[in-house]
Amino acid sequence: MTKNELFDRIVTILHDSFEIAPERIVPEARLYDDLDIDSIDAVDLIVQLKPLLGRSLQPDAFKSVRTIQDIVDVLYGLIRDQAA
Description:
The chain is an all-alpha fold. It has a single domain, classed as Non-ribosomal Peptide Synthetase Peptidyl Carrier Protein, Chain A, CATH 1.10.1200. 56% of the residues lie in helices and 0% in strands. The radius of gyration is 12 Å and the shape is globular. InterPro entries: ACP, ACP-like_sf, PP-bd_ACP. Belongs to the acyl carrier protein (ACP) family. Keywords: Cytoplasm, Fatty acid biosynthesis, Fatty acid metabolism, Lipid biosynthesis, Lipid metabolism, Phosphopantetheine, Phosphoprotein. It is found in: Cytoplasm. This is Acyl carrier protein.
């Protein structure tokens, strides 16, 4: 899965689950400040991202995540590591 495909999936999840307008979901958008994603929403988001990997996601992997691009980068790294 490419980074663009991951980004598109994240946009869909955020729009469908949190009713965030797709035009607001850009790579540099900050989860808390720009998209109003709080810690409980973040946990829900992690749960919804799990199927992209086909395995559990460790919340520790997301400690440094602040933007949409951060999510894409973490997921891409996990998928790449899984394939290796």
